[in-house]
Amino acid sequence: MRTARVMSLTPELVAMCEREEPEPEPEEGWTPLSDRDYSDLAVRLSNDCVDGDLWIFAYGSLIWKPEFEIADRLRAAAFGWHRSFCLELPTWRGTPEQPGLMMALERGGRCDGFLFKVAGNDCKNAIERLLRREVWDQESMYTTRWIKTLTERGPTRALSFWVGPVGEGVALRQPLERVAWILARACGYAGSCAEYLYNTVFHLENSGIHDSKLWRLQQLVAKEIRLLHQQHGAADRASRRTVMD
After folding, report:
1. Contacts of 117 (CB under 8 A, 6+ apart)
2. pLDDT tens-digit profile of 95-104?
3. Distance in angstroms (rounded) separating the CA atoms of residues 44 and 191
4. Taking a C-beta distance cutoff of 8 angstroms, is the pair 140, 165 a contact?
5. Residues 135, 144: contact at Cβ < 8 Å?
6. Contact 143, 161 (CB under 8 A)
7. Where are the alpha helices (DSSP H) in 32-147?
8. Of the four listed, 32, 131, 223, 243, which is most buried by Cβ atoms within 10 Å?
């Protein structure tokens, strides 16, 4: 019988990263999607639905927060892609002063996740709801795409979000140590990056998916948070001694 792995990153450590942050003004250089943009993209993507069924490939937050009714669920693998904290976040889970990182699918390797079949047969409206949750600007529309996945029932075509991003705000193939440094510090009005990592690893493990890279990352982030707060504690004690002296 396999002993359950114990995460180094705990809710207590995650709580140390939480803080109140205001929602910043929209960044310049990014064009918000209009209602017409969302509708047109949803129509284009829904035209590719097979037999009216809509399958979504979930590899990150959609696993633990899908926000849509699920009619069926399958474990799936996407070959040629892997999880990567490569999207810079100057808002949401970061700030302009301390940007965070969000996961996307980067080219190469294999990503194990889940296929969720969206309940109902209105592909267009279901896709538009998901687009409004996942994509916010015209410059990122291309990251919503159909990918090939493999399940126990055979190959399945599925829609996924933030697939193959490139360009401004994308930092590919960063060392895990650098990613951990950022995730331990970044927090925005929607929460911390440490919370995002914790929830993703926790729910993957509970679903029987062990991502060795993310597992190593959560160990590094836990270590970084402890070190960071030890340093803060030492600085506070030194400051108090100076005042008393």
Report:
1. 53, 54, 55, 56, 70, 71, 72, 73, 74
2. 999 999 999 9
3. 33
4. yes
5. yes
6. yes
7. 35-46, 61-64, 123-134
8. 131
